[in-house]
Amino acid sequence: MTEPARLEDETAGKLILAGMELFGEHGFKGTTTRMIAEAAHSNIGSIAYYFGNKRGLYLAIARHIAERMRTIFQLPDTPQAPSQLAGLDRNEARRLLEGLVRRMMHVFVREQEARRWLMLVMREQAYPSEAFDILYNEAFEIAHLTITSLIAVLMEQKPTDRRVIIEAHTLVGQIVFFLIGRTPLLRRLDCGDDYPSDLAEMAEQVVLSHVAALQRRP
């Protein structure tokens, strides 16, 4: 069964969502197929039927997260595609980068879906496995190359320049930390458990001001 067909199947989709939460909470070794099947309200044999085994499900979850990132952030499908951005002028590059930043901020600040990805992705960042290779090759690298290519145009530098790559990494870090560091920020601002709309908009404007600064930077 192909990955799109798996995701459209109700049982397979429930296994992916249940596995995502449990793998994120307990890690790969600490999560059993029985735990996943019970959380998905499915029989234990369904994991073998759809995914082959626990590792197959784990890798399918990584592919699902990567595919969702590419779709929501409107990224190209391959790492080679961002090289086409080199011919843009600075204003067009800034417009595209600001659009990408807004989409990423919306997901990481406002959407529950990103919170479901978080713990599994953080575990893979700390202890990379085959699943990290999938996340990197099918989402992280493409996003990073796209942002790097746009920043290179803004700064009038080559996308291979180390400063440009670090600027891109810093921008991504600023965006993602609104998800990773949401609890201390919301507590610091006495905002409860969710970002209110005005705070989410303010956070977006702060990050966008950093994009504007890149265009002014010599």
UniProtKB/TrEMBL annotation:
Q: Which InterPro entries match?
A: Homeodomain-like_sf (IPR009057), HTH-type_TetR-like_transc_reg (IPR050109), HTH_TetR (IPR001647), Tet_transcr_reg_TetR-rel_C_sf (IPR036271), Tscrpt_reg_YbiH_C (IPR015292)
Keywords annotated in UniProt = DNA-binding, Transcription, Transcription regulation
Domain (HTH tetR-type): give its ranges: 9-69
Instruction: Please tell me whether the keyword Transcription regulation is annotated for this protein.
Output: yes
Q: Name one Pfam family in it.
A: TetR_N
| DNA-binding region range list | 32-51
- This protein is called DUF1956 domain-containing protein
